[in-house]
Design brief:
- With 377 residues, this protein is of the alpha/beta class.
- It has helices at residues 6-18, 102-105, 110-122, 146-163, 178-193, 212-215, 229-245, 257-268, 271-280, 299-307, 331-343, 359-375; strands at 33-37, 49-59, 65-74, 84-90, 126-130, 167-176, 198-205, 318-323, 348-353.
- The protein has a 9-stranded mixed β-sheet, sandwiched between helices.
Length: 377
Protein backbone atom coordinates (compact mmCIF):
# COMPACT_ATOMS: atom_id res chain seq x y z
CA UNK A 1 0.00 0.00 0.00
CA UNK A 2 1.24 3.47 -0.80
CA UNK A 3 2.52 5.52 2.09
CA UNK A 4 0.68 8.79 2.61
CA UNK A 5 1.42 11.80 4.77
CA UNK A 6 -0.96 12.30 7.69
CA UNK A 7 -2.71 15.12 5.84
CA UNK A 8 -2.95 13.15 2.61
CA UNK A 9 -4.20 10.11 4.50
CA UNK A 10 -6.94 12.18 6.09
CA UNK A 11 -7.96 13.47 2.66
CA UNK A 12 -7.95 9.96 1.24
CA UNK A 13 -10.12 8.65 4.09
CA UNK A 14 -12.59 11.51 3.66
CA UNK A 15 -12.70 11.00 -0.10
CA UNK A 16 -13.13 7.25 0.28
CA UNK A 17 -16.20 7.86 2.39
CA UNK A 18 -17.71 9.93 -0.37
CA UNK A 19 -16.67 8.35 -3.64
CA UNK A 20 -17.06 4.90 -5.04
CA UNK A 21 -13.97 2.78 -5.54
CA UNK A 22 -13.35 0.85 -8.78
CA UNK A 23 -15.05 -2.53 -8.66
CA UNK A 24 -12.84 -5.59 -8.27
CA UNK A 25 -13.87 -7.23 -11.53
CA UNK A 26 -12.80 -7.59 -15.13
CA UNK A 27 -11.79 -4.33 -16.85
CA UNK A 28 -14.58 -3.11 -19.16
CA UNK A 29 -13.97 -2.51 -22.85
CA UNK A 30 -12.44 0.83 -23.77
CA UNK A 31 -14.87 3.72 -23.63
CA UNK A 32 -17.45 1.70 -21.70
CA UNK A 33 -19.04 3.12 -18.55
CA UNK A 34 -18.57 0.94 -15.47
CA UNK A 35 -19.94 2.61 -12.34
CA UNK A 36 -20.51 5.98 -10.69
CA UNK A 37 -20.84 7.62 -7.30
CA UNK A 38 -20.86 11.04 -5.66
CA UNK A 39 -17.96 13.48 -5.86
CA UNK A 40 -16.20 14.87 -2.82
CA UNK A 41 -16.93 18.52 -2.01
CA UNK A 42 -13.36 19.42 -3.02
CA UNK A 43 -13.88 17.96 -6.48
CA UNK A 44 -17.33 19.40 -7.16
CA UNK A 45 -17.44 22.38 -9.53
CA UNK A 46 -19.50 25.18 -7.95
CA UNK A 47 -22.68 25.83 -9.92
CA UNK A 48 -22.80 22.37 -11.46
CA UNK A 49 -25.72 20.00 -10.86
CA UNK A 50 -25.88 16.22 -10.70
CA UNK A 51 -22.09 15.95 -10.76
CA UNK A 52 -20.60 12.48 -10.33
CA UNK A 53 -17.36 10.55 -10.26
CA UNK A 54 -17.41 7.59 -12.64
CA UNK A 55 -15.18 4.72 -13.72
CA UNK A 56 -14.72 3.53 -17.27
CA UNK A 57 -12.59 1.23 -19.41
CA UNK A 58 -9.52 2.65 -21.15
CA UNK A 59 -5.88 1.79 -21.81
CA UNK A 60 -2.49 2.58 -20.34
CA UNK A 61 1.13 1.82 -21.26
CA UNK A 62 1.43 -0.57 -24.19
CA UNK A 63 -2.33 -0.31 -24.85
CA UNK A 64 -2.92 -2.53 -21.82
CA UNK A 65 -6.57 -2.40 -20.69
CA UNK A 66 -7.30 -0.69 -17.38
CA UNK A 67 -9.98 1.16 -15.45
CA UNK A 68 -9.75 4.94 -14.99
CA UNK A 69 -11.85 7.54 -13.23
CA UNK A 70 -13.30 10.91 -14.24
CA UNK A 71 -15.66 13.62 -13.06
CA UNK A 72 -18.70 14.84 -14.97
CA UNK A 73 -20.29 18.25 -14.35
CA UNK A 74 -23.70 19.29 -15.74
CA UNK A 75 -25.02 22.84 -16.19
CA UNK A 76 -28.24 23.80 -14.42
CA UNK A 77 -31.49 23.84 -16.35
CA UNK A 78 -32.91 21.72 -19.15
CA UNK A 79 -30.44 20.46 -21.79
CA UNK A 80 -30.82 21.69 -25.37
CA UNK A 81 -32.18 19.45 -28.10
CA UNK A 82 -29.59 16.74 -28.69
CA UNK A 83 -28.03 17.17 -25.24
CA UNK A 84 -25.34 19.33 -23.66
CA UNK A 85 -22.25 19.72 -25.87
CA UNK A 86 -19.18 18.44 -24.02
CA UNK A 87 -15.96 20.11 -22.92
CA UNK A 88 -13.41 17.38 -22.14
CA UNK A 89 -11.22 19.03 -19.48
CA UNK A 90 -7.61 17.82 -19.45
CA UNK A 91 -6.22 19.09 -16.16
CA UNK A 92 -2.72 20.31 -15.43
CA UNK A 93 -0.23 18.65 -13.11
CA UNK A 94 -1.63 17.96 -9.65
CA UNK A 95 0.67 15.03 -8.83
CA UNK A 96 0.59 11.39 -9.89
CA UNK A 97 -0.54 9.59 -6.73
CA UNK A 98 -4.04 8.24 -6.21
CA UNK A 99 -4.92 10.85 -3.59
CA UNK A 100 -3.97 13.62 -6.09
CA UNK A 101 -6.62 12.62 -8.63
CA UNK A 102 -8.74 15.57 -9.81
CA UNK A 103 -11.99 13.70 -9.15
CA UNK A 104 -10.87 13.04 -5.56
CA UNK A 105 -8.94 16.10 -4.35
CA UNK A 106 -10.11 18.66 -6.91
CA UNK A 107 -7.80 21.20 -8.60
CA UNK A 108 -4.49 22.43 -7.21
CA UNK A 109 -5.31 25.96 -8.44
CA UNK A 110 -8.81 26.03 -6.99
CA UNK A 111 -9.86 29.62 -7.68
CA UNK A 112 -8.41 29.63 -11.20
CA UNK A 113 -9.83 26.28 -12.33
CA UNK A 114 -13.28 26.78 -10.85
CA UNK A 115 -13.51 30.22 -12.46
CA UNK A 116 -12.34 28.83 -15.80
CA UNK A 117 -14.55 25.73 -15.81
CA UNK A 118 -17.45 27.68 -14.33
CA UNK A 119 -17.37 30.01 -17.33
CA UNK A 120 -17.60 27.06 -19.73
CA UNK A 121 -20.46 25.69 -17.63
CA UNK A 122 -22.30 29.02 -17.79
CA UNK A 123 -21.99 28.94 -21.58
CA UNK A 124 -24.03 25.75 -21.66
CA UNK A 125 -21.34 23.07 -21.85
CA UNK A 126 -21.17 19.92 -19.75
CA UNK A 127 -17.65 19.03 -18.60
CA UNK A 128 -16.03 15.59 -18.53
CA UNK A 129 -12.74 15.67 -16.62
CA UNK A 130 -10.59 12.54 -16.94
CA UNK A 131 -8.10 11.79 -14.15
CA UNK A 132 -5.68 9.94 -16.51
CA UNK A 133 -4.79 6.26 -16.05
CA UNK A 134 -3.22 5.34 -12.73
CA UNK A 135 -4.55 8.37 -10.84
CA UNK A 136 -7.28 7.33 -8.43
CA UNK A 137 -7.48 3.99 -10.22
CA UNK A 138 -5.37 0.80 -10.51
CA UNK A 139 -1.73 0.96 -11.61
CA UNK A 140 0.75 3.81 -11.88
CA UNK A 141 0.41 6.97 -13.97
CA UNK A 142 2.82 7.35 -16.96
CA UNK A 143 3.20 11.13 -16.58
CA UNK A 144 3.13 13.04 -19.90
CA UNK A 145 2.58 9.93 -22.04
CA UNK A 146 0.54 11.70 -24.71
CA UNK A 147 -1.05 8.68 -26.36
CA UNK A 148 -2.15 7.23 -23.02
CA UNK A 149 -3.66 10.56 -22.00
CA UNK A 150 -5.39 10.88 -25.37
CA UNK A 151 -6.95 7.45 -24.95
CA UNK A 152 -8.05 8.34 -21.40
CA UNK A 153 -9.67 11.63 -22.48
CA UNK A 154 -11.46 10.14 -25.48
CA UNK A 155 -12.61 7.06 -23.60
CA UNK A 156 -13.98 9.21 -20.75
CA UNK A 157 -16.10 11.15 -23.27
CA UNK A 158 -17.23 7.94 -24.96
CA UNK A 159 -18.24 6.40 -21.64
CA UNK A 160 -19.99 9.52 -20.34
CA UNK A 161 -21.91 10.28 -23.54
CA UNK A 162 -22.99 6.65 -23.79
CA UNK A 163 -24.31 6.60 -20.22
CA UNK A 164 -25.65 10.08 -19.46
CA UNK A 165 -28.54 10.69 -21.85
CA UNK A 166 -28.39 14.47 -21.45
CA UNK A 167 -24.92 14.61 -23.05
CA UNK A 168 -24.44 15.18 -26.76
CA UNK A 169 -21.83 13.25 -28.71
CA UNK A 170 -20.26 16.44 -30.04
CA UNK A 171 -17.26 17.57 -28.02
CA UNK A 172 -14.03 19.53 -27.82
CA UNK A 173 -10.99 19.02 -25.59
CA UNK A 174 -9.60 21.84 -23.45
CA UNK A 175 -6.39 21.52 -21.43
CA UNK A 176 -3.77 23.43 -19.43
CA UNK A 177 -0.08 22.56 -18.84
CA UNK A 178 0.14 18.74 -18.59
CA UNK A 179 -3.44 18.87 -19.83
CA UNK A 180 -2.40 21.07 -22.76
CA UNK A 181 -0.04 18.33 -23.89
CA UNK A 182 -2.87 15.85 -23.38
CA UNK A 183 -5.24 18.11 -25.33
CA UNK A 184 -2.80 18.46 -28.23
CA UNK A 185 -2.23 14.70 -28.37
CA UNK A 186 -5.98 14.14 -28.10
CA UNK A 187 -6.51 16.59 -30.96
CA UNK A 188 -4.20 14.50 -33.13
CA UNK A 189 -5.85 11.14 -32.35
CA UNK A 190 -9.44 11.97 -31.34
CA UNK A 191 -11.05 10.95 -34.62
CA UNK A 192 -9.24 7.60 -34.68
CA UNK A 193 -9.67 6.88 -30.95
CA UNK A 194 -13.31 7.97 -30.70
CA UNK A 195 -15.49 6.22 -33.29
CA UNK A 196 -19.10 7.24 -32.94
CA UNK A 197 -18.26 10.61 -31.38
CA UNK A 198 -18.40 14.01 -33.08
CA UNK A 199 -15.02 15.60 -32.26
CA UNK A 200 -14.89 19.32 -33.14
CA UNK A 201 -11.50 20.71 -32.02
CA UNK A 202 -9.15 21.59 -29.16
CA UNK A 203 -7.90 24.37 -26.87
CA UNK A 204 -4.49 24.17 -25.16
CA UNK A 205 -2.80 26.69 -22.85
CA UNK A 206 0.73 26.50 -21.47
CA UNK A 207 1.69 23.63 -23.78
CA UNK A 208 4.86 21.72 -22.75
CA UNK A 209 6.55 21.32 -26.14
CA UNK A 210 9.88 19.61 -26.87
CA UNK A 211 10.43 18.64 -23.24
CA UNK A 212 12.61 15.82 -24.58
CA UNK A 213 15.27 18.38 -25.52
CA UNK A 214 15.77 19.23 -21.84
CA UNK A 215 15.18 15.88 -20.12
CA UNK A 216 17.76 14.16 -22.33
CA UNK A 217 20.42 16.51 -20.88
CA UNK A 218 19.85 15.53 -17.24
CA UNK A 219 22.73 13.97 -15.36
CA UNK A 220 25.27 14.54 -12.58
CA UNK A 221 26.85 17.45 -14.48
CA UNK A 222 23.72 19.62 -14.54
CA UNK A 223 24.66 23.07 -13.20
CA UNK A 224 23.00 24.01 -9.87
CA UNK A 225 20.66 26.55 -11.46
CA UNK A 226 17.94 27.67 -9.05
CA UNK A 227 14.56 26.26 -10.14
CA UNK A 228 11.08 26.63 -8.73
CA UNK A 229 9.80 23.80 -6.58
CA UNK A 230 7.16 23.01 -9.18
CA UNK A 231 9.78 22.68 -11.93
CA UNK A 232 11.78 20.22 -9.82
CA UNK A 233 8.57 18.31 -9.10
CA UNK A 234 7.76 18.12 -12.83
CA UNK A 235 11.18 16.57 -13.47
CA UNK A 236 10.64 14.03 -10.69
CA UNK A 237 7.23 13.11 -12.10
CA UNK A 238 8.82 12.57 -15.52
CA UNK A 239 11.49 10.32 -13.98
CA UNK A 240 8.82 8.27 -12.25
CA UNK A 241 6.73 8.24 -15.42
CA UNK A 242 9.67 6.70 -17.25
CA UNK A 243 9.91 4.04 -14.56
CA UNK A 244 6.26 3.20 -15.27
CA UNK A 245 6.36 3.40 -19.07
CA UNK A 246 9.83 1.93 -19.61
CA UNK A 247 10.79 -0.42 -16.77
CA UNK A 248 13.36 -2.02 -19.08
CA UNK A 249 15.49 1.13 -18.79
CA UNK A 250 16.10 0.56 -15.06
CA UNK A 251 16.00 4.30 -14.42
CA UNK A 252 16.85 3.65 -10.75
CA UNK A 253 20.37 2.69 -11.82
CA UNK A 254 20.88 6.22 -13.14
CA UNK A 255 19.85 7.81 -9.85
CA UNK A 256 21.77 8.47 -6.66
CA UNK A 257 20.22 7.41 -3.34
CA UNK A 258 18.87 10.96 -3.07
CA UNK A 259 17.43 10.67 -6.58
CA UNK A 260 15.65 7.41 -5.72
CA UNK A 261 14.32 8.94 -2.50
CA UNK A 262 12.80 11.93 -4.30
CA UNK A 263 11.47 9.84 -7.19
CA UNK A 264 9.75 7.57 -4.68
CA UNK A 265 8.23 10.58 -2.94
CA UNK A 266 7.04 11.91 -6.29
CA UNK A 267 5.12 8.69 -6.93
CA UNK A 268 2.69 9.46 -4.09
CA UNK A 269 3.11 13.14 -3.19
CA UNK A 270 0.97 15.84 -4.81
CA UNK A 271 2.43 18.86 -6.56
CA UNK A 272 2.05 21.55 -3.89
CA UNK A 273 3.65 19.67 -0.97
CA UNK A 274 6.31 18.07 -3.18
CA UNK A 275 7.30 21.44 -4.67
CA UNK A 276 7.44 22.99 -1.21
CA UNK A 277 9.60 20.14 0.09
CA UNK A 278 12.14 20.30 -2.75
CA UNK A 279 12.39 24.07 -2.24
CA UNK A 280 12.76 23.82 1.53
CA UNK A 281 15.45 21.14 1.23
CA UNK A 282 17.20 22.96 -1.64
CA UNK A 283 17.20 19.96 -3.96
CA UNK A 284 19.81 20.29 -6.74
CA UNK A 285 18.99 18.45 -9.94
CA UNK A 286 22.51 17.27 -10.65
CA UNK A 287 22.67 15.57 -7.24
CA UNK A 288 19.80 13.26 -8.20
CA UNK A 289 21.81 11.44 -10.89
CA UNK A 290 24.64 8.94 -10.66
CA UNK A 291 25.20 9.00 -14.43
CA UNK A 292 23.73 10.93 -17.36
CA UNK A 293 20.45 9.80 -18.86
CA UNK A 294 22.04 10.34 -22.28
CA UNK A 295 23.92 7.06 -21.66
CA UNK A 296 20.63 5.33 -22.56
CA UNK A 297 20.82 4.42 -26.28
CA UNK A 298 18.72 6.80 -28.43
CA UNK A 299 17.31 8.34 -25.28
CA UNK A 300 16.16 11.49 -27.06
CA UNK A 301 14.23 9.42 -29.61
CA UNK A 302 12.70 7.31 -26.85
CA UNK A 303 11.61 10.46 -25.02
CA UNK A 304 10.12 11.92 -28.18
CA UNK A 305 8.02 8.80 -28.69
CA UNK A 306 6.96 8.92 -25.03
CA UNK A 307 6.12 12.59 -24.42
CA UNK A 308 6.75 14.41 -27.70
CA UNK A 309 3.88 16.27 -29.35
CA UNK A 310 2.69 15.39 -32.88
CA UNK A 311 3.75 17.92 -35.52
CA UNK A 312 1.12 16.98 -38.14
CA UNK A 313 -2.07 14.99 -38.67
CA UNK A 314 -4.59 17.34 -37.04
CA UNK A 315 -7.98 17.12 -38.72
CA UNK A 316 -9.88 19.71 -36.64
CA UNK A 317 -9.07 23.29 -35.51
CA UNK A 318 -6.57 23.70 -32.68
CA UNK A 319 -6.28 26.81 -30.46
CA UNK A 320 -3.07 27.37 -28.48
CA UNK A 321 -2.52 30.14 -25.94
CA UNK A 322 0.91 30.87 -24.47
CA UNK A 323 2.04 33.28 -21.75
CA UNK A 324 5.21 35.13 -22.71
CA UNK A 325 6.51 35.08 -19.11
CA UNK A 326 5.71 31.39 -18.61
CA UNK A 327 8.66 29.59 -16.99
CA UNK A 328 6.83 26.36 -16.06
CA UNK A 329 7.13 25.25 -19.68
CA UNK A 330 9.92 26.32 -22.01
CA UNK A 331 8.20 29.21 -23.77
CA UNK A 332 10.69 29.42 -26.71
CA UNK A 333 10.06 25.74 -27.39
CA UNK A 334 6.28 26.27 -27.32
CA UNK A 335 6.68 29.15 -29.78
CA UNK A 336 8.83 26.85 -31.92
CA UNK A 337 6.14 24.15 -31.81
CA UNK A 338 3.52 26.65 -32.97
CA UNK A 339 5.81 27.69 -35.82
CA UNK A 340 6.34 24.06 -36.85
CA UNK A 341 2.58 23.41 -36.88
CA UNK A 342 2.07 26.52 -39.01
CA UNK A 343 4.84 25.50 -41.41
CA UNK A 344 3.20 22.08 -41.66
CA UNK A 345 -0.12 23.72 -42.62
CA UNK A 346 -1.95 22.46 -39.55
CA UNK A 347 -5.26 24.16 -38.56
CA UNK A 348 -3.72 26.23 -35.74
CA UNK A 349 -4.92 29.45 -34.13
CA UNK A 350 -2.16 30.79 -31.87
CA UNK A 351 -2.29 33.62 -29.32
CA UNK A 352 0.30 34.94 -26.86
CA UNK A 353 -0.42 36.83 -23.63
CA UNK A 354 1.72 39.08 -21.38
CA UNK A 355 1.38 36.77 -18.38
CA UNK A 356 2.78 33.63 -16.79
CA UNK A 357 1.88 29.92 -16.93
CA UNK A 358 -1.16 30.04 -14.67
CA UNK A 359 -2.30 33.48 -15.80
CA UNK A 360 -2.69 32.31 -19.38
CA UNK A 361 -5.64 30.11 -18.47
CA UNK A 362 -8.03 32.98 -17.73
CA UNK A 363 -6.30 35.51 -20.00
CA UNK A 364 -6.93 33.28 -23.02
CA UNK A 365 -10.60 32.56 -22.34
CA UNK A 366 -12.00 35.67 -24.09
CA UNK A 367 -10.36 34.29 -27.24
CA UNK A 368 -11.08 30.59 -26.70
CA UNK A 369 -14.78 31.05 -25.94
CA UNK A 370 -15.71 32.37 -29.42
CA UNK A 371 -13.28 29.85 -30.95
CA UNK A 372 -15.17 26.95 -29.34
CA UNK A 373 -18.57 28.52 -29.98
CA UNK A 374 -17.78 28.57 -33.68
CA UNK A 375 -16.76 24.87 -33.55
CA UNK A 376 -20.21 24.00 -32.23
CA UNK A 377 -21.99 26.38 -34.61
Amino acid sequence: MRKLSIAAAALAVAAAALVQQPPAQAVPATGVFESAGPLSAAATLPGSVGSQRFFYGTTTVGDAPTTASAAVYFPPGAPPAGGWPVIAWAHGTVGIGDDCAYSVAGPAAVQRDWSYLGTWLQQGYAIVAADYAGMGSPGEHPYLDGRVEAHNVVDAVRAASGHYRTLARKWVVVGQSQGAGAAVSTARYATAFGPGLDYRGAVATGTPAYIEDVISLLGPGVPPVKLSGDTTAYALYIIDGLRTAHPELHIESYLTPAGRYWADRARTECLTPLGAATTAQKVIGGNLFARPLSDIPDFHGLLHNYLGLPESGYDRPLFMGQGLTDTDVITPETLRFAAVLTANHQPLTFHTYPTDHSGTVLASQPDSLPFVRKLFG
